[in-house]
Structure formats: C-alpha cells, structure tokens
Amino acid sequence: MSAEAAARTASGLIRAGRPAEALEILRGIPRSAAKAPEIRHLAGLAQLALGRVAEAEAELRKAAQKAPRSPAILRSLGDCLLQADDPKGAEACYRKALSAAPGDADTAARLAGVLLYQGRREEAHERYRALIAAGAATPPVLAGFAGSTEFEAEPPELGSILKLAAQPGLGAAERRMLHFAAAKIARDLGRPDAEFEHYAAGKAAQARGFDVSAFARWADALKQATPPAFFAARSDFGVPSGRPIFIFGMPRSGTTLIEQILGAHPDVHPAGELPFFARAVAAAGLPDGHAGAGGEGLVGRGLAALGREQSVRLGEAYLAGIRSAAPRITDKLPHNFLHLWLIALVFPRATFIHAVRDPVATCFSCFTTDLGDWHAYTRDLPTLGAYYRVYRDLMAHWTRVLPVPIVEMRYEALVATPEPEIRRMLDAAGLGWDERLLRFHESARLARTASYAQVREPLHGRRLEAWRPFAGKLGPLFEALGDLAPEAAAPG
C-alpha cells in the first residue's frame, strides 16, 4: 500500500472511531514517508483518540514544525494542548491557525471556546457574537454564546437557538446542546418553567436510554465477588507508591471543587479525569455496569483472574503516564467509584476521597447539566434516582470491605466551614497546610469539566438547594430516591 493510500485508509479509520487500527496502518508506512507532516498529523490524531496525550503532542509538534502554516495541524495541536492542561498553548495554536486561514469559522469557534475556558468571558462573548453575525451560528457557537455572559434581557439569538433545536435532521448531541443553551438563557431571565422544559427536552434528545436494572444486577454481582476475604488474599498486590489522590463520587457532587482546592497546594498537580482504570477494566474484558444486560455473569471470573504481576504492571503504567513531577497528583474521575476494588489493589497506599452531596441536589444538578452520552442514566428522573441508589449502596459496600481508608467529604460542609474540612483532607493525604488552598479560585490551574465556571469563584452556597423552586416537577425523582429524598422535598 502506498503512503497516500495508507493515509486515506488511516484517516477513514480515525473518523470511524477505530484509531488503534489507524495506527497499525500508519506504522506500516516506510520511515522516510512517515516523517511527512500529513502522516505525523494522522498519527497524532490517532494517539489523541486513544487518550495518549503525550504521544499525540509529540507527533503533532513534529508535524507543526514541518508545516507551520497548516491550519488543520495547528488546530489539532491546539486541541491536544487543551487536553494536556495547557490552554495558553492551545490559544496560541488557534491564533496561528486563524492567521493562516482568517475566515475559518471552526478555528474561530475553538479560539472563543478556549477564551471562555480561561474565564475571559467578555473576549469569548464578542468572538461568539462575531461568528453568529458572520453566519456561523452552529450549535457549539450558540451554546458558547449562551454560556459566555449573563443575560438581563432576551437576546435575539434565542430565536436562532430555538429554531435550530427544532430542525428534524439535527444530531442528538447538537439538539441537546441547544436546549441546554436555551435553559441557561431562561435561568438568567428568571423563567423557571421554560428552563426546566429545556432541560427535559435536552435530556430527551439523549442518543440512548439506560438499563438501570442491569446496572443494579452488575453492582450486586460485584459486591458478591468482593468480600473482605477477596482483598485479604491479595494483600501483596500493587505498587508501594502513595502518590495518587483519588477523588470520586457522583458527577456534580464536588469532585472538581475538591481537586481545584487540593491543586492549589504547591506539592499537588491536578491531573483531572484520568480514564486509566476504566480502560484497564475494559481491556480485561470486564463489564463496567454501563454495558447493559448480561455483564453481571462475567464479574466474578474476571476479578479472580487478576494476578499480582498484572496489578504491579498496572501501577507502573499509571505512574509512567503522569506528566507532572509534583510529589502528589489528583485523579478526579467521578466514576472511579465503579473500579475501587481494582484501584485499592493497585495503589493500597494512595489517598481515597469520596465526594458526597445531598442526593436531591446531586441528581438535580446531573439532570440540569449536559454531561454527554456516556451518562445516559441522567436521561430521565426515575432512572437517575434509581442509579443514585445503586451508587450509594455500592459505596457503602466499598467503605465496609476495602482495605484502604476512604475519606468522605461532604459538599455542604466544605462550603460552610472550608478550613477544617480542607485540613481534614490534607491530614488524610499527609500534606501540610497552605493558605493558598483557601484562595483556590485564584489558581492558574484550570478544571476541564462541566464545573469549570464554578471553581473560578470563591466558595459559596448559592446553588446548595437550586432544586427547590422546581420541587413540584421532581416527583418522579423523589419517588425513585425513596428514603434518600427528605420529607421536606415533597411537593406541596
């Protein structure tokens, strides 16, 4: 196969979501041709799709050195640097790409997005307005526009948002994005009925539903397969490093806030949401509970097959993938609560922090946030409430059986009395006090999740009970939560 044909094939595989196959094709290209910027660009895109950010950056930088005026390569390098927690570098790449192709709306939208991500809302808002005026009112641009300012009057762009959201041929993710943009504007304007209507419409656009009964069966099988004896028989597993601080819990429970606080410590690098253990479980052929019916039968056999040498290799690979030289790193993938059996075996000396928030507040925040297709359990209130109960029961099990201490951090307590709660976290992690942790919102280190805007603010309790004005619409959630929904939550 010629280099040109290999490049075409690899490009198609990347677009089809098959980056590993694309890399195999690219590795077969003769070395002289493989150094071409187009080939390095494709290799970088494939590595990035596989989550190998450092490898992707190396390939894309080499491609950019060979083709310093290529808008496509500069855009891809910017995307990679954003994932590598370098928004300034990403911004520089997008600006160079725009300089090379001034009319490129895709690059302009990326630049506006990275400005918004850095908290430069006015700059971002002006760029979004310019894009809309130029006829580039795509769903991401309209969503960014809605999120880049607080509205005191209904903007004319709302009409464009609603019109586009109603188009029958629109993709599920784009329709969801637009409804959440409309909900944000309705919230700013004090229109709770319209706000909730758009949240519900956005969630209804979710590409697929979620089998919460299958998830519950999987969790039961996992609990049965991991009694205390399971861990006692594996007390020599893992690596001795205590470097990681794992932060987990339901989305919207405060994991980002906890990481941002700890990340303000000079000895801590906030690594964000690392999918390492989710990928390790998938690579071992184990279900994670989100795959639907049938997976529960594989749990016991799969867990028993894990050997000591494999646990050591996993720990070494995890540490080798950390780019920072900081003494401690945080890993705040919320759904690591699904994999705590494995994480505790691989890192028995790590710090484990469980972020907990009021059940109704957590579920309401999940429902009113566009979390993406993987979080299909947030599509409707009954499923979300049932999912929360399974999560709560699984965490109770881990607290009983894991051979590691789990520090529970309650969001409400952290907001009300931050210093003693922060000191409690630091004590658990073996870290000394630093006043900068109380000023975490001033840190240049940024969160890369749906909570990025909130962690730019000092601690406050304005959203603690954001659900209460909507209590009359939350009956299905209260019913699914059962005794986890306080009596005061009942409407009327």
TrEMBL record:
Taxon lineage: Bacteria, Pseudomonadati, Pseudomonadota, Alphaproteobacteria, Hyphomicrobiales
InterPro entries: P-loop_NTPase, TPR-like_helical_dom_sf, TPR_rpt, TPST-like
Protein name: Sulfotransferase family protein
Keywords: Transferase
TM regions (residue ranges): none
Pfam families per the UniProt record, alphabetical: Sulfotransfer_3, TPR_16
Xref: SMART domains: TPR (SM00028)
Source taxon at top rank: Bacteria
Listed GO MF terms: protein-tyrosine sulfotransferase activity
Coiled coil regions in record: none
